[in-house]
Amino acid sequence: MATLQALLFDVDGTLADTERDGHRPAFNMAFKAAGLDWHWDESLYGELLEVTGGKERIRYYLEKFNPSFSKPDQFDAFVKALHVSKTRFYTQLMAEGKIPLRPGVERLINEARSADMRLAIVTTTTPANVTALLTNTLGADSESWFEVIAAGDIVPAKKPAPDIYLWALKQMNLTPADAIAFEDSLNGIKSSAAAQLKTIITINDYTKEEDFSQAQLVLDQMGDENKPFNVLSGEAQGHSFLDLELVKKIHATM
Ligand code: XBP
Ligand code: MG
């Protein structure tokens, strides 16, 4: 059994509940600023999350939920510009500091750093969004804690394809057996599992009904000493919150 060397973190939904209160309002602000009457409410956004990537999600929305919209001639450029505007609104929202990290995230990252564990971010969101979340929650220099930030359009095939995880592992010169992934969604675990990574899931409101049968451990949150997690599947082996020792035990199970 390989020794655990690296923790690979998804961002949206895993580090923070950014989808409902960050990305969704930012999309709506961009639509309004562009003079579009589109509005993505919480329930519609849940359906749109089927597709990862903001530009891809806009296209999917038009195809499936707003097919009568007459596309402008330069449609690719139109989607790109709308998405640039959305990223601007999203990073502004993060700068306002309204979206905290989920329980236990900062504690686990700090513990992993103290133990010289290697860290990476593996996400489909735009790199500027990762910077905005990390710097406004963990501090100005926190991006440098992560050896690799695999994000956005680095690989053309976003999650659920394994490509972004495989890219990150390659950059770190690691095999899948050397690392473990942290995810919150079905698209996320499809990606990490297809990259042969063991995966710990922390669910959220958008993902709680999804199929996590490929996960080694499914929790409602990472939790803290005074805020125990609920175990939805897998073995917490006597632990009440996700610390590095439990992560190592999960990594070591067959
Ligand atoms: C989240 C995503 C992203 C964000 C939007 O994936 O699918 O597309 O919703 O970000 P993950 P962009 O959980 O893997 O981070 O608009 O920048 O694409
Ligand atoms: Mg996610």
Summarize the structure in words.
- The protein is an alpha/beta fold.
- It has 2 domains: 6-16 and 100-252, 3-Layer(aba) Sandwich (Rossmann fold); 19-95, DNA polymerase, domain 1, CATH 1.10.150.240.
- It is built from 9 helices and 7 strands.
- It has helices at residues 18-33, 42-48, 54-65, 75-95, 105-114, 127-137, 163-172, 186-194, 244-252, and strands at 6-9, 118-122, 148-150, 179-183, 198-202, 217-219, 231-233.
- Strands 3-2-1-4-5-6-7 form a 7-stranded mixed β-sheet, with helices on both faces.
- Strand 2, helix 6 (127-137) and strand 3 (148-150) form a beta-alpha-beta unit.
- Helix 1 packs across helix 4, helix 3 (54-65) packs across helix 4 (75-95) and helix 4 (75-95) runs parallel beside helix 6.
- The longest helix is centred in the middle third of the chain and has 21 residues, at 75-95.
- The termini are close together.
- The mean pLDDT is 97.
- The chain binds xylulose-1,5-bisphosphate and magnesium ion.
- Magnesium ion (MG) is lined by residues 10, 12-14, 184-185, 188.
